[in-house]
Predict the 3D structure of the following.
Amino acid sequence: MAVLEVVKYGNPILRKKCSMVTDFSKLSDFIDNMFYTMYEEEGIGLAANQVGVGMNLFVIDISHTDENEFPRIFVNGEIISSDDESIFSEGCLSIPQVALEVKRPENIVFKYQDIREKWHEEEFDGLLARAIQHEIDHLNSVLIIDLVSEMQRVRVNQEIKKIKKHSEAKLKQQSITKRFVL
């Protein structure tokens, strides 16, 4: 297994809506690498675009929490309905060292495929529902900073600017390197 690079705020892939998965034949190794990366980064969820791949796919593992869940894989997911709301502090692997109070529905009905292409529709609540919504937001180009008040954004603005500046510098360096390699 390989640790994949988690892209940071400022990378344009985080602001592009991800495509539906149509070819499931090569997902297994990629998903293994996504879980491995998520564990190395000490996250509970990871969307494909967070590792530079623009497909509608994410993984979640909250088994270490009180919610007694197992690691989950969601492909081509869509929230069908939601209700109730709560506010909870969320972090993001693509915006490290930043935590924001995000208001989200408490319960969702979620439609998705598994890696065998079978469709499922399930109800989720608690931390798993929140994590699913966070990752679906990633796949739809929405970040936690888009979901909070101006006051919260101002509070973390300096850190966000540093992350974006570093990400943009890295992209520029990669672009220069590619030109010399070609």
User: Anything to note?
Assistant: The first strand starts at residue 45 and ends at 47. The chain has three helices and five strands.
